[in-house]
Amino acid sequence: MKIIKLDAIDSTNSFLKELNKDSSLENFTIVVTKNQQKGRGQRDANWYSEPFKNLTFSVLVNELKLKTNEAKYINFAVSLAIFKVLEIYKIPNLFIKWPNDIMSANKKICGILIENSLSNNKINNSIIGIGLNVNQVNFPNLERVSSLNNILGYELNLDDLLIDLIKQLKFQFELLNKKLFSNLENEYLAVLYKKDIPSMFKTDKGITFLGKIIGIATNGNLLVESENNGVEEFAIKEISFL
Length: 242
Description:
The structure is a single chain. By secondary structure, this protein is an alpha+beta fold. The chain folds into two domains: 2-190, BirA Bifunctional Protein, domain 2; 199-241, SH3 type barrels (Roll), CATH 2.30.30. It contains five helices and 14 strands. It has helices spanning 12-22, 72-88, 148-152, 158-177, 181-190, and strands spanning 2-6, 29-33, 39-40, 46-47, 55-61, 94-97, 101-104, 107-119, 122-132, 199-203, 208-216, 222-226, 230-234, 239-241. The strands form three sheets. It has a seven-stranded mixed sheet with strand order 1-2-5-9-8-7-6, sandwiched between helices. Strand 11 (208-216) and strand 12 form a beta hairpin. Helix 2 (72-88) crosses helix 4 and helix 2 (72-88) packs across helix 5 (181-190). The radius of gyration is 18 Å and the shape is globular. This is Biotin--[acetyl-CoA-carboxylase] ligase. It comes from Polaribacter marinivivus. GO terms for molecular function: biotin--[biotin carboxyl-carrier protein] ligase activity. Keywords: Ligase.
């Protein structure tokens, strides 16, 4: 394991991806910054993080034994790693909101961006970007966002938290490489936000409907059941809660 610490960078994922092009990096190379200026979320959404307050880092995992159709299990492993560490820190009402936001009650405290390199039906490596709201207390114009400090009422040591997260990530990837897929999926579904709870949804086409999340498809899409349309699949950004 190698940790590269940067004072400031546009995006840890982008930096690590470029670094990996020019050199052979060891498994679990980590890039962490105190000031991520142009963080990225799913589908190139922006991720703003107040400098020196939060954990913004990326991890390269290149010793994978997975096929391309097993990519969803990477998401399960990463989401569960963060979830389990936050459980230890006694963050209440924890959930994973599909695909990989970590929630406390109805507020987002962590975002994840996973970028896989694929060839010949295999996943060569995965770059995992994690933005965890730790000591930031103000989130202008964001109602459904919080931080560990806001929830617990005190500041946390960023370095200690980083080490805890890396240890749990390694453990979850060990399970992944042992092909314990059912275990990972069952654990993920057990803490999936609003699973089996009737909820109002809105599609990217503006259609609203009452349905309930029943699982995750083989390709990682969300499975939602409604009275009128039965079970439908939705990709990222194709559906949201109302």
